[in-house]
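Researcher: Please translate sequence to structure tokens.
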Amino acid sequence: MRKSDVSVILPVYNGGEYLSAAIQSILNQSFGNFELIIVNDGSLDHTEEVISSFSDDRIVYVKNVENIGIVKSLNKALSIASSKYIARMDADDISYPQRLKVQYEYLELHSEIGVCGSFVNVKETGECIKYPETHENIVFELLIQNVIAHPVVMIRKELLDNYKLQYDDKFYPAEDYKLWIDLITKTKFYNIQFPLLEYNQHSLSISQSNQDIQLKKIYEIRTIYLLNSLRLNIKDAFVSMQRIISFENSKDLQHLEKSKTVLSDLASSNKNVLFFDQKKLLKLLSLYWYVEVHGVDIGIKEKIKIYLSLRHLGLCNFLFFIKLILNAI
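Model: Translation complete:
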């Protein structure tokens, strides 16, 4: 049998209710030269029966004796995958028939692109979730949100192999976001500008406890991304920057002075390396600076003086300045 061009990796835990449709959506692809690696992560429902009902020789079935979690299951699938490209798939989503063909052909034609996503549709609402197209826009937007939909991504496997990258368990349940940050300096990203996958709405819902954990991990990832991309000392600035990104106001003037130093360094560094769009970054840093100054319990005159102290770096957005004054009235 000829080596496949795409390895589709699909971890599943107690996903029997939706799994059959997910598997069928991959087997029905217009692009046929793939392997579908299904990792059953110790499911206790009828997941195994669903998988066994398919006899397609493109399916590679892996059964974990016990539940080891999605991150380890994903990495197990990556270690087995032998294709040029890795495509992700969730056990409760539907890939449209042209998905693999569109992504494979795009990556074949654009060797500079290493990570390819797309828009997605939400099954229950019919909403189309759109993401920025070009690498330059994706680079900046990753500072604000995850703009690569994990279940519809396709990645060049050689990037993961060459840089020894995989999903990081320490950043669960935002392990995909961390992988994009690890890859963003090593390749270019692109999003197909139409939907290639249908989300099942329930898969977007996580418990409140997991939401809190995820948010904490997201703030940590964004901090690492910002400091590493701009080549700042992550040990010196990490605590202050993570607090700033999570919009935890400065408690006093000492905190504010540390924030001022970090934000100044970020603005100056990007002016030199131009990793991010400077205009967009300055607007974002201006927002952070406004929130920091606004949160300190001092008089309005002193707030204005401190806020304007960074105007020479472009960190004094006029609208935030007006808002600072109005909030004091």
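Researcher: Any highlights?
Model: Residues 230-328 form one domain.
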